[in-house]
Design a protein that fits this description.
The chain has 227 residues and is an alpha/beta fold. It has a single domain, classed as Rossmann fold (3-Layer(aba) Sandwich), CATH 3.40.50.1820. The chain contains 5 helices and 8 strands, in the order E-H-E-E-E-H-E-H-E-E-H-E-H. The chain starts with 5 loop residues before the first strand and ends in a 25-residue tail after the last helix.
Length: 227
Amino acid sequence: MDAGPLVVLLHGVGARGRDLEPLARAIARGLPGARTACPDAPEPCDWDAGTRQWFSLTAVAEEERPARVRAARAGLDRAIGGIVAAEGMSGSLGRVALVGFSQGGTMALDAVASGRWPVAALAAIAGRWSIPAPMRPPGGTRVLLLHGEADPVVPVADAGRAAAALEGAGLAVRVATYPGVGHAIPPRGVAAVVRFLAEALAGEAGTDTAPRPVPGPGSGPGPGGWA
């Protein structure tokens, strides 16, 4: 029997892969047979060596973020590539999805926007749009962007920026924003991710993530870490 689809979840800075395991379990329940993986980012976090980061936020200016994302690509690609290879999915990226929260959402957005990972689906939650040019996204990747409207860490306007850029590059994008939600993954967001992945990976119909207007910028860290 064929193995099920693979979902790789990417945590934020100041967290570990295990912090996204509750979301991974919800995905596994909603997609029977699906496999999930929650890798640790390669670098120790600047302010907590017991947690990890994809790239440093120390003394980072907004204009410097794309360069830091670019520098972090090799570490991300090793993490995703190792999982994909171990699960026997190197030739089946059309049955792979990426889910990222916060800094992990930024890295997942870059993985698709750069064209490096032409996966079936991408769900980015509270991800910052700091993607280096040029963009070369694969045409078949479906995208879901989720964001709390009261996020004090990554402005909700970044979801609108990401949607505009990705739609302009030809991708199908859905956006859902959540009033009163900060930098976190709300229960409604978990349900939306599960339904989106079921539709994208298993052909199941139905989602509550129809596009809605993204407002301008408006708690502590969510379960996957800071941005």
